[in-house]
Amino acid sequence: MSKKRIIVVGNGMVGHNFINTLATSEYASQFEILTFSEEPRLAYDRVQLSKYFSGYTAADLALTTESEYNEKGVIFTLNDKVVGIDTHAKTITTASGRIEGYDKLVLATGSYPFVPPVPGKDQDHCLVYRTIEDLEAISASAAVSKTGVVVGGGLLGLEAANALKAAGLETHVVEFAPRLMAVQLDEGGGKLLRRKIENLGVTVHTEKNTKEIVAGEECRYRMNFADGSFLETDMILFSAGIRPQDELARKFGLELGERGGIVINDFCQTSNDDIYAIGECALWDNKIYGLVAPGYQMAKVAYNHIIGNLITHIPSELAFKGADMSTKLKLLGVDVASIGDAHGRTAGSQSYVFNDDIGEVYKRLIVSADGKKVLGAVLVGEAESYGTLLQLMLNNMDIPGNAASLILPATDGAAAVGLGVSSLPDTAQICSCFDVTKGQIQEAVRNGCHTMGALKEATQASTGCGGCAALVKQVMDAELESMGVEVNTDICEHFAYTRAQLADIVRVQGYSSFEQVLEGHGKGEYGCEICKPALGSILASFNNEYVLKDGLIGLQDTNDIFLGNMQKDGTYSIVPRIAGGEITPEKLIVLGEIARDYDLYTKITGGQRIDLFGAQLHQLPEIWKKLVDAGFETGHAYGKSLRTVKSCVGSTWCRYGVLDSVSMAIALENRYKGLRSPHKIKFAVSGCTRECAEAQSKDIGVIATEKGWNLYVCGNGGMRPRHADLFATELDDDTLIKYIDRVLMFYVRTADRLQRTSVWMENMEGGLDYLKNVVINDSLNICEELENAMTKVVGTYQCEWKTTIENPEKLKRFSQFINSDKADDNLAYVRERGQRRPATELERIELVDLNSK
Amino acid sequence: MSNWVSVCELKDITPGTGVCALHNGEQVAIFRVSANEQLYAVSNYDPFSKANVMSRGITGALGGRVMVAAPMYKQHFDLATGECLEDAEVSLKVYPVRVNAGQVELG
Ligand code: SRM
Ligand SMILES: Cc1cc2nc3c(=O)[nH]c(=O)nc-3n(C[C@H](O)[C@H](O)[C@H](O)COP(=O)(O)OP(=O)(O)OC[C@H]3O[C@@H](n4cnc5c(N)ncnc54)[C@H](O)[C@@H]3O)c2cc1C
Ligand code: SF4
Ligand code: FES
């Protein structure tokens, strides 16, 4: 039997989703799949497009790769537009002149940005926002512009405004309607959103109808509005809505809607049975769906119908039945959500409104005439209840308890009104991006996915917009519980708590010793090598006492207990702090002299400082005395604590530097040195976007811009590198430090044992948005406490080595033997490139032989 | 019967830590697991890392057995018997130890 030929026109998000479903299905071998893309690359994540401006590359956004398509046998042609369809011969023609036959043709041509027919709109620096090429053009234009205007105050327009602002432009939004996001928000919500966005420095102009774009006086252009007013700008970004890309259907006789869009039936067939249309180009029940989830749903329907028609000959029952257009997103850092009937248009509907001008939160809940069902909602400024409200609406469930409490802020002590996931039907769609139901999540959990990571991989749930993450986790946890799987998060057999819980216990009870915690909350009388260092670290984080103090010393791990890093032969390395990597020649000479005198192997570390290896226990105090006398301090290379703050040379010398990165790095290193934390913490500060200090791979990364510091958090090098997330932009010195104080203390309080900030972030419910909310908006009302805790640590800093060498009692331990001055006789070295290193086992045997001869 | 030799004073060993003594040419790790006079003594040589470092390990208990975790790669050794909890083939030599009039003595 010859293979069936499917041609997919357009390789956007939905076209790719269709191809992926078909190419990975059990019927894949019976098909030949061809796809044509007008764009120069295969499908990428348009939903996350704006991340391009925070450093994502085209490769980061890609949904697939050419090699993946090759492996799956998908034949693709890029940069070639389909320009003709012959419905009788069942062929298509491309711009390059290719003609290919099909059994079924799938149109997934998406949409294009609508540009209002304003005279002057076709000039340079008048752009749109849809493809990676558009973004490249925007970047190029922004680089030579000072002011930018976005035409259109809808969802995409505000995203575009964010991009312009991030690019450092003075940003304006011009909207025709009287308010922002008129489709999704009511008046109150639109008003608050406007206020919030204006506070962020974006100027909003509503009820403005652009008449023409002419040459400007101060800027490149002047936009003249119908009401006689005008606005000067260097660039213009049109984001006034989208139009379905129905060009092919129009030219080749497929039925169109009155205002465009390719008409489809419930099986996504167009007026020609062998031609399907899916995604944003398709018009179902006179509606275009401008979101990706309904497109994926259509792809699934079309796939099933094609299989039924060509292969199994069993008619598919899966039909497209419309889709929910609720959305939750973050616009310029403001949480905005719109659910169902946001405008209260349903007959007899009633609403509750909560408006907090001080906290800048607006919520409106629309309920049915009988007050029992949720019909819709508008949330601005805080959208945590989105998941709950959406499920109540989608599943037509009765409102549990008092409806008003669904939007009222949780009062102290009382838990926020949530929705027990157990009350949801199994068919409830939890993840709308990938159409994953509660039942599917439960099944995956039963099949062994016991972590969010595994679950995401198996079901794709929560890998799109991420809006469903909290709910997915609740379903998983509930299922695990019902399976009787004890999710054992106990730190060890002595404490039935997680590290975060132990941290709370220590903090709230004000404990200062391991014994107090063990007696009050643990089992047994000794503890072990897991709980002792963990509690040692927690006690140090909050109390910041000398770690070798009696009572604390026994808690210290291998390296901390002798304030050095133990090497493979039992000797130690010495790493003095060289804040920001800046060092005077005098200090370099001291290091050189000490290294020479003690014959220490010397190496520049990956953290911009100098490591001296091979010191024996009894030598450590002598060496440190010399270092301390020369003005050095401990570098905490041994501690789960701040390691280094890398810097680039910055504005003092570098011809590109915009801020003094070295001074900032030194200030940060000196502020946080000595802070004990769940794992080590690394920082870097770069003087401009060239990023020579590699700040985006650090737990805390700081990059200078013309307008202040950009703060990145939760990056990681090491075993599993993670690109840091952009956390806040254009900060002044004080705000930068304030945010870092808060982030670090929140990490100290809530992370697991030996969990770097990267993994902490990945496991945090609500992720980056949640962290921002806690740190920037003080949503938990703990920022003052966090700052005070950090102030305490900063104020109680001591150089542990200085304290140690001043304390003769403590020095007794620094020798190989308690009863002899002899050295360990098991050490053996060879010389390599002029320095010594531990002998290998083979070399040891030879050395012994030599000695005995 | 063994000859008890004094190696240091009890107060030289901070509760919760260990020290190493040179005893008849052998390196012996002596641990004081808690604040009382109970001591344990085993060989200071870590058979896994092949370095003389056992006295620098963290002590504690696992399933009721008092143990020390090797500082290098964290294998556990039963302090009473010297047995390695992860590998029955490996064990540390155990030495008699006692406190006599404030002196720590090895036998
Ligand atoms: C000395 C140094 C290598 C060098 O010669 O350059 C080094 C040496 C060690 N690293 Fe490192 N790391 C060193 C820079 C790094 C860097 C680069 C950096 O900081 O810019 C990284 C990747 C960046 C990062 O951490 O995100 C790095 C990622 C690791 C990791 C993996 C951490 C992770 O999250 O995946 C470990 C293992 C661990 O911590 O569990 C580790 C652990 C270690 C340990 C502590 C292993 C051990 O337990 O003995 C090494 C002993 C240090 C010693 O004896 O002094 N080291 N290590 C560097 C010391 C920098 C300093 O001045 O303090
Ligand atoms: C900045 C931005 C943010 C967004 N945010 C969200 C969001 O948060 N949530 C959400 O759900 N949705 C969001 N969307 C919408 C979402 O991206 C779209 O719904 C989705 O991409 C639609 O997929 P599609 O395959 O139908 O169209 P597209 O992804 O546009 O793909 C169509 C492809 O077909 C190509 N093509 C067209 N005609 C031809 C032809 N004749 N021959 C060959 N190729 C052709 C086009 O060049 C294009 O590559 C956003 C969109 C943008 C631009
Ligand atoms: S990051 Fe910028 S300022 Fe720093 S050294 Fe590199 S180019 Fe210069
Ligand atoms: S709803 Fe978007 S990822 Fe689940």
Largest interface, C-beta within 8 A: A-B, 36 and 38 residues
The overall average pLDDT of chain A, rounded, is 92
Tell me, what is the CATH class of chain B? Mainly Beta
Describe the sheet with the most strands of chain B. 3 strands, antiparallel
Structural class of chain A: alpha/beta
Whole-number total of structural domains of chain B: 1
Provide the helix percentage of chain A.
25-40%
Question: Strands of the largest sheet of chain B, in order across it?
Answer: 1-11-10
The CATH topology name of chain B reads Rieske Iron-sulfur Protein
Uncertain stretches of 5 or more adjacent residues of chain A: 412-418
Q: Give the helix proportion of chain B (percent range).
A: under 10%
Bound ligands, named by name, code or SMILES: siroheme, flavin-adenine dinucleotide, iron/sulfur cluster, FE2/S2 (inorganic) cluster
Rg of chain A (C-alpha, Å): 32 Å
Strand content of chain B: over 45%
Number of helices of chain A: 25
The CATH architecture of chain B: 3-layer Sandwich
Number of strands of chain A: 38
Shape of chain A: globular
Domain FAD/NAD(P)-binding (chain A): 5-302
Subunit structure (chain A): Homodimer which associates with NirD.
Domain Nitrite/sulphite reductase 4Fe-4S (chain A): 639-775
Keywords (chain A): 2Fe-2S, 4Fe-4S, FAD, Flavoprotein, Heme, Iron, Iron-sulfur, Metal-binding, Nitrate assimilation, Oxidoreductase
SSE layout and pairing:
The complex is a heterodimer of chains A (853) and B (107).
Chain A (H helix, E strand, L loop, with lengths): L3 E6 L3 H11 L7 E6 L21 H4 L4 H7 L2 E3 L4 E5 L4 E4 L4 E3 L2 E4 L3 E3 L12 E3 L3 H12 L3 E5 L3 H12 L3 E5 L12 H13 L2 E4 L4 E6 L5 E5 L4 E4 L1 E4 L3 E3 L2 H5 L10 E2 L11 E3 L4 E2 L8 H21 L14 E5 L2 E7 L9 E7 L4 E7 L6 E7 L5 H9 L34 E3 L4 E2 H9 L5 H8 L9 H14 L16 H11 L4 H8 L9 H13 L21 E2 L5 E3 L10 H14 L2 E4 L5 E6 L3 H11 L12 E6 L13 H12 L8 E6 L13 E6 L2 E6 L11 E7 L1 H18 L6 H7 L3 H9 L7 H13 L4 H6 L2 H4 L17 E4 L2 E4 L2 H12 L1
Parallel strand pairs in A: 1-2, 1-7, 2-3, 7-19, 9-16, 10-11, 10-16, 11-12, 18-20, 32-33, 33-34
Antiparallel strand pairs in A: 4-5, 5-6, 8-17, 13-14, 14-15, 21-22, 22-25, 23-24, 24-25, 26-27, 28-29, 29-31, 30-31, 34-35, 35-36, 37-38
Helix pairs in contact in A: 1-8, 10-12, 13-15, 19-22
Chain B lengths: L4 E5 L7 E7 L2 E7 L6 E5 L1 E2 L4 E2 L5 E5 L2 E5 L6 E3 L18 E4 L2 E4 L1
Antiparallel strand pairs in B: 1-11, 2-3, 3-4, 5-6, 7-8, 8-9, 10-11
Organism (chain B): Parathalassolituus penaei
GO molecular function (chain B): 2 iron, 2 sulfur cluster binding; metal ion binding; nitrite reductase [NAD(P)H] activity
Pfam family, one (chain B): Rieske_2
